[in-house]
Amino acid sequence: MLYRPDAPAPTPSAPTRAAVLVASVLAVDALLHLYWTTGATWPAADGGSLSHAVLGTDVPFTPPILLPLAALLLTAAAFVLAQLRRPGNPLLRVGTLAVAAGLSLRALAGVYWLFAKETGTTFHWLNLMLYTPLCAVLAVAALRVARWKDASRV
Fold first, then answer.
1. Least CB-packed of 2, 33, 117, 133 within 10 Å?
2. Alpha helix locations (H) across 37-89?
3. What would the pLDDT profile of 57-116 be if each residue is shown by its tens digit?
4. d(CA 131, CA 43)
């Protein structure tokens, strides 16, 4: 095929966009966890306020806790991208379904926490406006990638 500068660029398929969205958000989250292993607490003032904003409770943000989480997030991102490239592989499909299930569980927990946790806290508002809706959208996107079967349309 000849290169034509005036030809429109191919539009990525919906599963491609979904996979890139899921993998990008998971990778950024992993990078935040790796950043916090250094002892930095941005965007919070200290470790306690970071823990309460992110989790709604007091949990130490230490490398033994954060490194496995970062590894899990990067592995999940890799499964979703790999499923996009090899949609017929059953292991990658199961891995991507596991990502969708994990994100769904977090979204459901977020709905529960909206009623079970104290309102007016930073966590309550972040959970309401960011964490829960984002996890719900990412769960649907990961499910779309897991269900996709056409490798010729990548």
1. 2
2. 47-55, 63-85
3. 999 999 999 999 999 999 999 999 999 999 989 999 999 999 999 999 999 999 999 999
4. 15
The residue whose two tokens read 């941005």 is 42
pTM of the model: 0.89
Distance CA(62)–CA(76), nearest Å, equals 21
What is the spatial distance between Cα 154 and Cα 40, in angstroms, rounded to a whole number?
39
Predicted confidence (pLDDT) at residue 151 exceeds the cutoff of 70: no
Q: Compute the distance between CA of residue 151 and CA of residue 87 in angstroms, rounded to an integer.
A: 6
More confident site: 13 or 2: 13
User: Is 131:124 a contact under the CB 8 Å cutoff?
Assistant: no
d(CA 92, CA 15): 15
* Spatial separation of the C-alpha atoms in residues 144 and 20, rounded to whole Å: 12
